[in-house]
């Protein structure tokens, strides 16, 4: 999946979702703005028809200033040609949605 953007778009980049038998689901994001790679491991939640991913690097911050160890990414399908990815973090003890991306099939 690729999020398009212009040169000033912080969230533009590529997302790779993979599954390895016996190991589980993996998510890798490469952001065009910083050329940074962020990796996460995840699980499928059948009751929501969605995937939860947790960032594997516990130090540092993501591009919006969110502490990596507090970030959860939820991905779900919204029909045959669209995926939605939402990023959540903890602020003042509450989980808050901070981003949403929509990926569409051309």
Molecular structure report:
There is one protein chain. An 8-stranded antiparallel β-sheet has the order 1-2-3-4-5-6-7-8, with no helix packed on it. Helix content is 0%, strand content 57%. The protein has strands at residues 2-3, 13-20, 24-31, 37-45, 50-55, 72-77, 82-91, 94-104. It is mainly beta.
Rg over CA atoms: 14 Å
**Terminal residue distance:** 11 Å
Q: Name the structural class.
A: mainly beta
Largest beta-sheet characterization = 8 strands, antiparallel
Number of DSSP helices? 0
Low-confidence blocks of residues: none
Mean pLDDT: 80
Strand order of the largest sheet: 1-2-3-4-5-6-7-8
Overall tally of domains: 1
Strand content: over 45%
Query: What is the H/E string?
Result: EEEEEEEE
**What overall form do the CA principal axes indicate?**
globular
Share of helical residues: under 10%
Total number of beta strands: 8
């Amino acid at each position: 999946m690729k999020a398009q953007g212009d040169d000033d778009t912080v969230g533009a980049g590529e997302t790779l979702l993979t599954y390895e038998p016996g190991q589980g689901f993996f998510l890798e994001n490469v952001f065009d703005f910083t050329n940074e790679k962020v990796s996460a491991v995840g699980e499928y939640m059948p009751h929501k028809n969605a995937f939860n991913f947790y960032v594997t690097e516990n130090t540092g911050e993501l591009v919006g200033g969110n502490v990596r160890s507090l970030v959860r990414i939820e991905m779900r399908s919204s029909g045959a040609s669209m995926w939605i990815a939402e990023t959540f973090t903890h602020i003042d003890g509450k989980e808050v949605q901070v981003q949403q991306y929509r990926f569409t099939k051309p």
